[in-house]
Design brief:
Blueprint (H helix, E strand, L loop, with lengths): L1 E5 L4 H12 L3 E6 L13 E4 L5 H10 L4 E4 L6 H6 L1 H22 L3 E7 L22 H20 L2 E7 L1 E3 L17 H9 L6 E4 L11 E6 H16 L5 E5 L4 E3 H12 L5 E4 L8 E2 L4 H7 L8 H14 L8
Helix pairs in contact: 1-7, 2-4, 4-5, 6-8, 6-10, 8-10
The structure holds nicotinamide-adenine-dinucleotide.
The site of nicotinamide-adenine-dinucleotide has 29 residues, from helix 1, helix 4, strand 5 and strand 7.
Length: 329
């Protein structure tokens, strides 16, 4: 299929592009490079454009003969969304609407959407199933939930079919280490830990050491970015074969505390990783772990890299080869 990948120059998007290429699809990447890197796009066409530019988005769908869309382009910093909610409503909600309208106008029938564990808010049940109440506690989560709801109305009115993938914590790199995580600012634990191992940061700040967890630090569910990417390929295939619209969690089903991640990184890298306890960040739930039973049962998805050390090892390969990320080494 010819697939438009919005945000395809970003961390997860570039791995999705790679998985599409490996599965024999033809990806076309649309990215405004606000956060992404053109060098991360390992194949297919690259178009620099903004998802909120309706004329251009529609033109691309038409001109490129797009048959399906994978929509990853978004602003995705929870803390920033608390300070600048409008930015999130514009990129994520208005950007989502622009895309939906363009798809309707051009008759593109299938959409795979990057959603997030942040739609759940404070979890009442662990592991979190998809039918857990969705009560986001920040504008970022709200913006993603809103797009999910818009997709449902577009299905009802216009017959769009969609799969929304609620990712937990993406981590790791494709096994050859050609592409990897390069965010600025970097807020994700594993890259921060590995940058500290490389000496690019002095220490890892441990945000909160008094959570009601066995070692007092937050527990998260890390999913390898290639496993995540693979799920998009499966979702496309399912939609093309007539599967109904659906929402799926994507995680490993196993949680690791921040301290466990740091210990695992020390074992993988063999380096010192200094740590400094810091106050909790507001809005960080103590534990976020997914139940991914639904996507395993319905789409046959299986993680190939479920072990934390293996996830960190692949990320480490990327950081060793590109200590300062794209362009900067
Ligand atoms: N990284 C995670 O653990 C995680 C977890 C849950 C959900 N997500 C979601 O997955 C998606 C990808 O995340 P990521 O970590 O790869 O982030 P990323 O910032 O690396 O990628 C997002 C890409 O979208 C592009 N973009 C942003 N605004 C755009 C616009 N207006 N027009 C066109 N392109 C635009 C950026 O340049 C970037 O390349 C996002 O939608 C994010 O909300 C990520």
């Amino acid at each position: 299929m010819r697939v438009l990948v919005t945000g395809g120059a970003g961390y997860i998007g570039s791995h999705v592009v790679l998985a599409l290429l490996e599965a024999g699809h033809e990806p076309v990447t649309l990215d405004n490079l606000s956060k992404g890197h053109e060098e991360a796009v390992l194949g297919g066409k690259f178009i620099q454009a903004d998802i909120t530019d309706s004329g251009t988005v529609q033109q691309i769908l038409d001109r490129e003969g797009i048959e399906a869309v994978i929509h990853l382009a978004a602003d995705s910093l929870v803390g920033e969304s608390m300070i600048h909610p409008g930015k999130y409503f514009r990129t994520n909600i208005y950007g989502g609407l622009t895309l939906l309208e363009a798809m309707r106008a051009c008759g593109v029938p299938y959409l795979v959407f990057s959603s997030t564990a942040a739609v759940y808010g404070e979890p009442k049940e662990i592991p979190i199933p998809e039918d857990h109440p969705a009560v986001p506690t920040n504008p970022y989560g709200f913006s993603k939930l809103t797009v999910e709801q818009m997709m449902a109305w577009y299905e009802r009115a216009h017959g769009l079919r969609y799969i929304s993938l609620r990712y937990f914590n993406a981590a790791g790199s494709e096994p050859e280490g050609r592409i990897g995580e390069d965010h600025n600012p970097e807020t994700h634990l594993i890259p921060v830990v590995l940058q500290t191992a490389l000496g690019l940061r002095r220490e890892v700040e441990l945000f909160g050491t008094d959570y009601p967890t066995p070692d007092g630090t937050c527990i998260r569910d890390y999913i390898h970015v290639m496993d995540l990417a693979e799920a998009h390929v499966l979702a496309l295939k399912a939609l093309a074969e007539g599967a109904p619209s659906e929402i799926y969690n994507l995680g490993n089903g196993q949680g690791y505390s921040n301290r466990e991640v740091i210990e695992a990184a020390r074992r993988v890298t063999g380096r010192e990783i200094p740590v400094r306890p810091a106050p909790r960040r507001s809005g960080d739930p103590a534990v976020l772990v997914a139940s991914s039973a639904r996507i395993q049962q319905e789409l046959g998805w299986r993680p190939r890299y479920p072990e934390l050390e293996r996830i960190i090892e692949t990320a480490w390969r990327w950081f060793l080869a590109h200590p300062r990320g794209f362009r900067k080494d």
